[in-house]
């Protein structure tokens, strides 16, 4: 109902038109005004006096039976006598008016009054029904239009229907169209495909809105039924069913009832069950499958000892074209007890897990069921306590298998986890499932050498390129993380890089020399080997390889004393000084090798008279076996052979020729018997005494000086070597003497293999003008002969 005072007040000011020439007066008022609402002053509009209205018998004669408008004769005002409903009065006409005749007497006068009824928005849009239904196939593509019932609004102009709206949804929109008669129509627009399996029925609200101020609206409920199509294949609630039957069970016993689900409906959801071609002939003889109910029953003799497990592949096919199918596997365990055991269903299993997975990582999801009921069907689960896994029970019969500790693939690479389930019976019945979890490797271990230091013994004169050793680094990781490559690290502190001496096979670790080594030049060297895996990032470790060069008997002895020329030496002997055991000379030889390869022995090869001289086997000393007589021998030739102790043995020879000198002392004595002149003898004596005295004094001073100097040198040498050096030696690169010892200078003859060395002091005979060996005094140094450093580092001067 319209609020008449407010609407009347808003429209009272509307103009009133009258046409006196034609005798017609026209008013405009809105509909739904209340009783007594002012329409206009007819007296003023007709230019009549108020008293004339009653005097001339003023009256209104309406065209309609109902009298909506009346006049107040006291003031001439026209007012609304009855509520005017434009929609009831004029229906759907675009214009609506009330027509009156005014009659006056004395004189008779008539006028035509037209009151136009203006529309107000006093009606809401409405639909013929409160709801209507649509059936739409789920296969219809988006963009399809579906006509909807139009709403009705009795108001006119802007107050009639101007728009339609649909309630919010994800599938449909609304499309508004203008009709030829000016009305508005609505169509339902499919924007997103329908899926009956997700939503079979949609409830929408269509709203019609008019253009009045304020707006009015009307609604209708739309029920959309999605018509099913065969677009879903049957599915089973499990991919693998596991059940069991007791052996010797009676034929017809129900094993399991499969229930496939098809999200379609009607004939599209009618399923037919059957075995697939993968089921063996033996299993077809043992079990039967009902095509409609999905029941698997026993039809043959089940023997636990013959077959403990039967695998049955089942398919469910719907009956609508095209026939869609779903498959599952039924595992029937044949047991030899008459009861039902719990079943474990693994819904999700991760067969691998990284070894750096944090505790709490989910490995498997499972559910536990038991065909028994009551306390027998109450199932509990557990896993062994000595593994880094545990079970969590978040809800009901659902379990999660998660990691409970840090994993280490190198300690355990595979876990065979037994999940046990037992019911509440007495005694309880249990079942278990094994999950094999493989721990995948990460690069968390560096290669490890079997030793931190390798000692490699290599014989000198080796063949370059031949493998001399192989290092091995153990890598416990797998695949690329376990692929080890070897390389040689360069040491910047070394004079020459290790790559000059050796190379290494990066795959096998074999070490190969790049040159032939000489023990006399290089006795050992070291280098570092790195082992690195192929992981990301790579890990590595190092080891030290010490190569020790072993000596080989590749050098022949070299005779350094006495000095030889073309392997020959000449010496002079005074027979007077020779006695049995007299040391005639000492053969000294050196060998650049070491150890047994430098252990020398001496022997006579070609003595002209073997009864005159002998040579020390190890010392090399040539001694007289008896006294010499000049009349018996004038010259003696000895061939000395020096041989080392290597395998094979090397040797050198030298020929020493001895010349027997006449006894000068005896001749001098013989001359003293002859008469001499006293003056000549006296002057000559004086000269000789002066010369010999001066020489002896100078010689004594020199000896004292040399003794003091040698004593200091011996003390220094004893501090460095722990031994007394009895003579000075000088040796060139060929291990030979460069200079013979000077007069009165002590000799040191260290004999190879001889435990003691000898020192000889040379004295000049006062009776002879030549330097002869008259006597020699031995000196024993403390440095042992078998010290290799003597033969390798010392040379005789």
**What is the CATH topology assignment of the largest domain?**
Immunoglobulin-like
- Classify the helix fraction into a percent range: 10-25%
Question: Major sheet, described briefly?
Answer: 5 strands, mixed
DSSP helix count? Answer: 8
Instruction: Note the overall shape.
Output: elongated
Task: Give me the secondary-structure category.
Answer: mainly beta
CATH level 4 superfamily of the largest domain: Cadherins
Q: What is the CATH architecture assignment of the largest domain?
A: Sandwich
The average pLDDT value, as a whole number, equals 77
How many domain units? 7
CATH level-1 class of the largest domain: Mainly Beta
Question: How would you write the strand order of the largest sheet?
Answer: 1-2-8-7-4
Distance between the termini: 147 Å
Strand tally, please? 52
Rg from C-alpha positions?
Answer: 68 Å
- Strand fraction equals 35-45%
Ranges with pLDDT <50 over ≥5 residues? 1-22, 665-681, 718-797
Brief account:
The chain has 797 residues and is mainly beta.
Tell me what you see in this structure.
11% of the residues lie in helices and 38% in strands. It starts with a helix and ends with a helix. It folds into seven domains: 4-118, Immunoglobulin-like, CATH 2.60.40.60; 131-227, Immunoglobulin-like; 235-335, Cadherins (Immunoglobulin-like); 342-440, Immunoglobulin-like (Sandwich); 448-550, Sandwich (Immunoglobulin-like), CATH 2.60.40; 558-671, Immunoglobulin-like (Sandwich); 705-793, no CATH class. The longest helix has 44 residues, at 678-721. The protein is mainly beta. It has a five-stranded mixed sheet.
